[in-house]
Specification:
CATH architecture: Roll
Strand content: 35-45%
Helix content: 25-40%
Structural class: alpha+beta
Number of domains: 1
Radius of gyration: 15 Å
Largest sheet: 6 strands, mixed
Distance between the termini: 55 Å
Order of helices and strands: HEEHEEEEH
Number of helices: 3
Amino acid sequence: MTDVHIDAPHAAAQRGITEWHRIVAESDWDRLPDLLVDEVVFRDPANLEPHHGKARIAAVLPTVFSIMQDFKFLRHFGRETGYVLEFSARVGDANVFGVDLIEFDTEGKITDFTVMMRPASAALAQAAEVAKRLSAG
């Protein structure tokens, strides 16, 4: 049997995840850019190509959260540089379940953010609505 070493999240990642939870809980999207590195990468569940850059992600994430209702974090798992956050929400009439994989730099800023969500039909519906709202805005 191989010994498994599990890294504890470093203090910067802990600060970053605490701020992420606060931003989501308070819908304080004006503070989101402060939590992102300039070249942050965001991968949403409906597109193969990632989004790049602070300005783009600072527009996308608040729009995503405006579409979800009853959003709540369920569990989280940490490692040295990041977290996996399990969540549930509703998108329209669909109950959704997903995970966020978030990596932080040594200053506690998000460098990489990946979302996986099911069912696929809800992820696609949400992506279509995000695109519609962003193009209208």
